[in-house]
Amino acid sequence: MSLPVFQEAAEHPAQLKFLSALFYAGSSFLITVVNKTVLTTFRFPSYMCLGIGQMATTLIVLYAAKVSKTVHFQDFDRGIILKIFPLPLLYVGNHITGLASTKKLSLPMFTVLRKFTILMTMVLEIYILRKTFPKHLLYSVGAIVFGAIVAASSDLAFDVQAYTLILLNDAFTAATSVYTKKKVGTEDLGKHGVLFYNALIIIIPTLMASVLTGDLHEAVTFEDWVEATFIFCFLVSCLMGFVLMYSIVLCSYYNSALTTAVVGAIKNVAVAYIGILVGGDYLFSWTNFIGLSICMSGGLMYSYHTFNIKSTGVNAEGAQETKIHISEDSQARFITN
Fold first, then answer.
1. Which listed site, 13, 108, 243, 306, has its alpha carbon 20 to 30 Å from 21?
2. In whole angstroms, what is the distance from residue 146 CA to residue 40 CA?
3. Sign of the C-alpha dihedral computed for residues 274, 117, 161 and 29 taken in this order
4. Are 189 and 73 in contact (CB under 8 A)?
5. Which residue positions in the chain have pLDDT lower than 70?
6. Residue 65: per-residue pLDDT
7. Would the CA dihedral through 147, 148, 149, 152 be positive or negative?
8. Per residue, what are the HEC states of 221-278?
9. Which residues form the Sugar phosphate transporter domain (predicted)?
10. Residue 227's Cα: distance from chain center in Å?
11. For residues 13 and 315, what is the distance between their CA atoms, to the nearest angstrom?
12. Which pLDDT does position 119 carry in this prediction?
């Protein structure tokens, strides 16, 4: 039986919901800027190795916290892999396509195309978590996606490969958020266990892929390893990779996967506004600017209805909800496609 969004949201205090969303927005903003600096400004050739560094940092930080008994999560056993599947595969895809698309797209256009994560997340929550959504949230999401379409229609630097990567990243991000919400809520892993075992399972095959493709060799022979500024930015990126993954888990845990996606969208529009002024790789047009403004309006409208206590109370008592019914057969077809 599916549950309305506002009923799920009521399980956690409003302050924790808002603070976890704010933490995710800040972390996502910082890592976008740092990754852009490492991959574009310094022209670091290996986005895969940057991802490996972020995974390694996650393992080191969480293992040290477990040993010091700062955090607690389940010890490793053979059942862990089955419990956590398919999250490791989704995390790999999310890391690789995210870093690759960051390198190939201008920062503002990257943030515009990331809006389609929201629509994909909503669809996956309907099919996988069997959720329903109030009409005002549907309208808000519709405004965000429409604004993204308007903004992207003015892109004069269209790149098929870059656009393919970013849309794949949207799909992986949406699936990761939904399955993270599902695993944290139903499996005996906890927030920290989900993060630790995801990184542990995927770091070895990712490292092997980096070796086989020659990606690791390019990273090791990179000439700027002698530059203190680059080393600092690389280490900050590795640390922020852990912080971002942790903030996503927290935001998805206290809110919904869809709310996490919308918070990311609002942050991305703010980054796009900054990129217009200081980026240097943005081709300004009024169509793009208007599209971004529509996105921001939809995101703010969604945030108001989600985090406003009075609005939530009203919705819980009597707001009409748009219910989307899905048969078991259609759900199976969606998941297997």
1. 108
2. 29
3. positive
4. yes
5. 1-11, 99, 102-104, 106-109, 111-112, 154-158, 185-188, 268, 272, 275-284, 309-337
6. 92
7. positive
8. CCHHHHCHHHHHHHHHHHHHHHHHHHHHHHHHHHCCHHHHHHHHHHHHHHHHHHHHHH
9. 16-303
10. 30
11. 17
12. 85
The CA-to-CA distance between both ends of the chain, in Å, stands at: 24
Per the listing, tokens 């269209």 go with 158
Proportion of the chain in helix, strand, coil states, percent, rounded to 5: 80, 0, 20
What are 225-283's pLDDT values in tens digits?
989 999 999 999 999 999 988 898 888 888 888 888 888 777 767 776 776 666 555 56
**Cα Rg of the chain, angstroms:** 20
Phi, psi (degrees; rounded to nearest 5) at 226: -85, -10
d(Cα 148, Cα 235) in Å, to the nearest integer? 33
Instruction: Give the number of other CB atoms < 10 A from CB of residue 329.
Output: 8
- Give the phi and the psi of residue 132 in degrees, each rounded to 5: -125, 160
Contacts of 22 (CB under 8 A, 6+ apart): none
Given this model, what pLDDT does residue 239 score? Answer: 94
Q: How far apart are CA 310 and CA 6, in angstroms?
A: 12
127, two tokens: 């099919």
Which amino acid would we find at residue 87?
Answer: L
State both tokens at 66. Answer: 């477990």
3-state class (DSSP) for residue 323: coil
Instruction: Give the pLDDT of residue 60.
Output: 95
Identify the pLDDT of residue 106. Answer: 67
Q: What's residue 276's pLDDT? A: 67
Q: How many residues does the chain have?
A: 337
Residues 6 or more apart from 143 whose CB is under 8 A from it?
A: 294, 295, 297, 298, 301
